[in-house]
Amino acid sequence: MQKEPPHTPSEFAFGAVVVVLLLASLGLIAAGGWLWFKGMLESAAPAWIQAIGSIAAIFAATEIGRRQAHAASDLEAKKQAAAEIQKLKIVMALMARAHGLSNDICKAFSTSQFDDFDQVSPELMVDTHLALRALPIFEIPDGLLALDVLTIGRALGVMHENWQRLRELCNTDPASLLEEIAKLDTLATEIGEISLAALNECKKEIASRSI
Q: Out of 78, 84, 95, 157, which could bridge 198 as a Cys pair, Cβ 3.0 to 4.6 Å?
């Protein structure tokens, strides 16, 4: 069943005036009709004019107050949406970077080309890790995105440590390289999947606030 919209104060006031006018008409008929009413108007015209003016002023004040409250509410909602969009864009940019970093590692392991290994940036891993860890988690507009920020932030730190360890093993323990590569490839794949999902969620949340 469709729910009826709530009545505004001005609608209640208008209804009350209609009821009063109806009762006044019945009273007019009972009191003797138009001649009596005409005489009453001539003697009480100033009072009637003042009363009508007061009612009109009440209607106007009520409507102005309602419109001002509605406008203030809309303005506050727009300000909040703009602030949330800005935060979501920051999260989205960091998730895009994390996704790119994970893809670089997976591609290097897949192709085994020196040029692809050169594309991997440990410095950018650290920078993105620190940036995500520095975000005020409780101010992120979406709870699941906040969890993704925590997860990816920690995972990037681990990925950096494992990458550095892999480089050291090339000289100290080449026999263990395959095992370490498999672990790092799995971690990078998970980071890529989570960061991509978070990236798409950011886009959806931004779109919902831009309407």
A: 95
